[in-house]
Amino acid sequence: MITVSLRFYGDLNDLLTISTGQNQTTFERQLPGPTSVKDLIEGCGVPHTEVDVILVDSKAVDFSYLIADGNRISIYPVFNSLDIPEADRLQKPTAHYPRFLADVNLGKLARYLRLAGLDTAYRNDADDDDLIEQMQEENRVLLTRDRKLLMHKVVRHGYLPRSADPAEQLEEVLRRFDLFHELEPFSRCPRCNGSLQNVPKEEIIDRLEPLTKRHFDEFSQCIGCGQVYWAGSHRRRLDPKVKEIFDRI
Ligand SMILES: [Zn+2]
Question: Which neighbouring-strand residues pair with 36?
Fold first, then answer.
């Protein structure tokens, strides 16, 4: 029998599926034999994608570390603001503009990320195998609230939105991947994820409603689905919380 003591820091405590007595506290786990620290952590309900630093007896280890009797293990989430030695971090930085893949339950978040200008793949009929395949082929960051899916060992970059509210999920993703200062809102089609490009009014004038024709002169068009947009068309009916987030970008 192996006995270790564990402490999860920050919002990792929100993900725990085992009872630890008190929140944010050290607790003990007993295991029948050696196991990787990844399996130990995920056995507590926390997917590896959420963990940035693991210290065992004050020394940084990676997910493959085999735990030993008496280990004291501290587990930290991603803190973008903290100065942590790069070598100790388990969540390697994603691309400058990460590309996302949202699971079937995050359709609204996908739409908001696209509106924020971020390349976000989404299909409402994708099963787990489809998601894993697309994530690997296109090197995308997997967004899902399905812990089991995030715990899959091939998932390198992922995030589990804590909130059930899509506007709050948008805020979480922008914060987690440190994207607040780098975005170009309304540069991508919320319907299909295609890029938008400017289009002369005369080319699309036949498709405009009379009021739009009269009041607007600048238009853009999706290179994917052909949808036409104009100033303000994106913002119509936008959740006030999302508007407020875009105003801060
Ligand atoms: Zn489109």
Answer: 66
Does residue 205 fall inside a structural domain?
yes
Q: How far is the CA of 224 from the centre of ligand 1 (A)?
A: 5
Residues 18 and 68 in one domain: yes
At 200 the pLDDT is: 94
Question: How far away, in angstroms, is 196 Cα from ligand 1 center?
Answer: 8
Clarify whether residues 20 and 59 are in a common domain.
Answer: yes
Tally of domains within the chain: 3
Residue pair 74/55 in contact (Cβ under 8 Å)? The answer is yes
Residue 5 is classified by DSSP as E
Q: What is the pLDDT of residues 33-79, one digit of tens each?
A: 999 999 999 999 999 999 999 999 999 999 999 999 999 999 999 88
Q: Left (φ > 0), alpha (ψ -120 to 50) or beta: where does 80 sit? A: alpha
* Ligand 1 geometric centre to CA of 145 (Å): 26
84 and 104 inside one domain = no
Q: Is 240 contained in some domain? A: no
Domain that holds residue 214: 187-233
**Cβ atoms of 118 and 183 closer than 8 Å:** yes
Asked if the structure places residue 242 within a domain, the reply is no
Residues across the chain: 249
Q: In angstroms, rounded to a whole number, what is the distance separating the alpha carbons of residues 230 and 72?
A: 57
In this structure, are 146 and 84 located in the same domain?
A: no
Residue 246 in any domain: the answer is no
- Output the CA 247–ligand 1 centroid distance in Å: 23
Q: Dihedral of CA 14/18/22/24: which sign?
A: negative
* Beta strands 228-230; 219-222: pairing state: antiparallel
